[in-house]
Structure formats: structure tokens, C-alpha cells
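Exercise: predict the fold of this chain.
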Amino acid sequence: MNILFGFIVGLHILVCLFLIGVVLLQQGRSADLAGAFGGQGSQTAFGPRAAANVLTRLTTWSAIIFMLTSISLTILYQRSTGGSHSVLENSKPAPASEPAKSGK
């Protein structure tokens, strides 16, 4: 179980870094130099449509893998700890404070 958990954590980190890179590589609509002058040309190697399609597909698939690894890590962690745990389980209630004294 620990080997699987470690593998998914490693895959999750790689997908996170890849997703960050792919999102940063994308350009907005008409964000290249030709778009500044109203032209329809593009400076990309694949042409205006192909580069956008490749980056969009890479972003979509990496986001799907990111979500699946996130859910998998949550399920594996819950199974390894033996059930549901809450942050509030071991917390102590706050002590009741006295009302403020009036200045009269």
C-alpha cells in the first residue's frame, strides 16, 4: 500500500508541474504579435489552430489526470488511516470568556 501511495504522489507531482507548464505556454486569443495589428497570422510552428488544439488537449488530459490522482490519494489515505478523521475530533472547546466590565 505504501508503494502505491508513493507512486501516486510522485505521479501527482509530475502532473502538477506539467500542468503548470502547459498552462503557462498557452496564449490568449490574439496574444501574439500579429494579433496586436489585427492580422490573422501566428508565430507558432504548428499554425494558429494546431498549436492551440495541442495545448488545449494537453491541458485537458493533464487536468483529468490531476483530478484522478487527487481523488486516489484521498481514498488511499482514508484507507490507510482506518476510517474517517476530522480536524475537530481532538480539539478542545474554547474556554468561555467573561463579559467585559463596564467602565461606569
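Check your answer against the key: The two ends are 66 Å apart (CA to CA).
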